[in-house]
Amino acid sequence: MQRLRLLCLHGYHGNRNILRQQMDPLFHGLEVDCVQVDAPSIAEGDFGWWHGNFSSYREGFRGWGYTLGVMKHLSGLQLDCFYEYLTWYMSGFPGSVIAREGYYSAQPLMAKKFLTDAEWDYWYGGKPAATDIVDPFGKLVEKAGHARDGGSFDERMGNVAVWNSIMEEDRYLIRRWNEFITS
Question: I need a surface site. Which of 9, 132, 172, 183 has the fewest CB within 10 A?
């Protein structure tokens, strides 16, 4: 029987070493390989995770997305503030920041207004960088002449086979985590 391999991702304020320390006790004694990778970390100034090679699976990619939703109890000023934030978030500037971190915006054409042509072609077009590509803080991400693995936005998004908001392993991991913290 093949060992179960779980991909464990951390948030912006962590790294794979911290995540490994947190996750190892959970999987102790199980036939599980917990694979940790570094995501962009603002706290660590590490935006280099996408330099790894991305495999293109026959069956397609698994994708994750985010959303902003209004809570039904909001009214008055709170509701107005939510819509102001939502309008700003979809205005393009935040999308350009996350593009420079290697992610895609829900409003790519709005984000394009805040990206240079070279950045747009690299991040969304799948073309070799015409100039050096930098992250939101000016740190070098890719030298001119190199292309991003995986192709263009259309090639990547056109090959997503499964969109997940909760992984299939979610209930199992929650049970195991609760067992761990109560032991």
Answer: 183
